[in-house]
Amino acid sequence: MLQRVLLGVMVFGGVAVAAPLGYTDIVMRILNFLLFMGILWYCTANTFKNILATRRAKISKSLEQLQEERQAAKEEKEQALRALEEAKQQASQIVSNAKQEAYLLTQKSDQQSKTAIEKLIRNHQINQEKESERVQQEAIAEVLGDLFEGAKAEFATPTYMHLIHQKVAK
C-alpha cells in the first residue's frame, strides 16, 4: 500500500514540475492530501481492518443464526403439515366409520322393525283365528242350547247344519 502512495507522489510530482508556476498550488495540495491519506491509511489500516473483520463476523454470525431459525421454522412447518395431514386422515376415517355405523344401525333397526311387524301380524292372525273359533263355538252353543231347551224336537242333520250356518252367518 505504501508503495502505491509513493508511486502516486512520484507521478504527481513529475506532473507538478512540468506544470506552469501558476498551477503548482493545486497540485501541491493534491499531493499533500494524498500523502496525508497514505499516512492515515498506514496508521489506521489495521484498526479499520479489525473493525471490518469484527463487523463481518457479527454479520456472519447473525446470518447463521437467521438460517438456523429459518431451518427450525421450516421443520416446524413441515411437522405441522404432517400433523395436519394426519388429522385430516383421522377425520376422514372417523367420518367413514360414522357413516358405516349409521348404515349398520339403520339396517339393524329396519330388521328389528320388520321382525316386530311380522310378529304383530302373526299375533293378530292367531287372535283372529281364536276369536273366529270362539264366535263359532258360541253360535253353535247358542243354537244347540235353543234347540235342547226348546221344544225338544228332533231335526234331521241337514236341518241342524242349516240352523248352525244361519247363526254363524249373522
TrEMBL record:
Residues 49-101 form a coiled coil. Its main location: membrane. Signal peptide: none annotated. InterPro entries: ATP_synth_b/b'su_bac/chlpt (IPR002146), ATP_synthase_B_chain (IPR050059). It is a single-pass membrane protein. It is found in: Cell membrane; Endomembrane system. The chain crosses the membrane at residues 28-48. Keywords: ATP synthesis, Cell membrane, CF(0), Coiled coil, Hydrogen ion transport, Ion transport, Membrane, Transmembrane, Transmembrane helix, Transport. GO terms for molecular function: proton-transporting ATP synthase activity, rotational mechanism; proton-transporting ATPase activity, rotational mechanism. GO terms for cellular component: endomembrane system; plasma membrane; proton-transporting ATP synthase complex. F(1)F(0) ATP synthase produces ATP from ADP in the presence of a proton or sodium gradient. F-type ATPases consist of two structural domains, F(1) containing the extramembraneous catalytic core and F(0) containing the membrane proton channel, linked together by a central stalk and a peripheral stalk. During catalysis, ATP synthesis in the catalytic domain of F(1) is coupled via a rotary mechanism of the central stalk subunits to proton translocation. Component of the F(0) channel, it forms part of the peripheral stalk, linking F(1) to F(0). The b'-subunit is a diverged and duplicated form of b found in plants and photosynthetic bacteria. F-type ATPases have 2 components, F(1) - the catalytic core - and F(0) - the membrane proton channel. F(1) has five subunits: alpha(3), beta(3), gamma(1), delta(1), epsilon(1). F(0) has three main subunits: a(1), b(2) and c(10-14). The alpha and beta chains form an alternating ring which encloses part of the gamma chain. F(1) is attached to F(0) by a central stalk formed by the gamma and epsilon chains, while a peripheral stalk is formed by the delta and b chains. Belongs to the ATPase B chain family. This is ATP synthase subunit b. It comes from Helicobacter ailurogastricus. The gene is atpF.
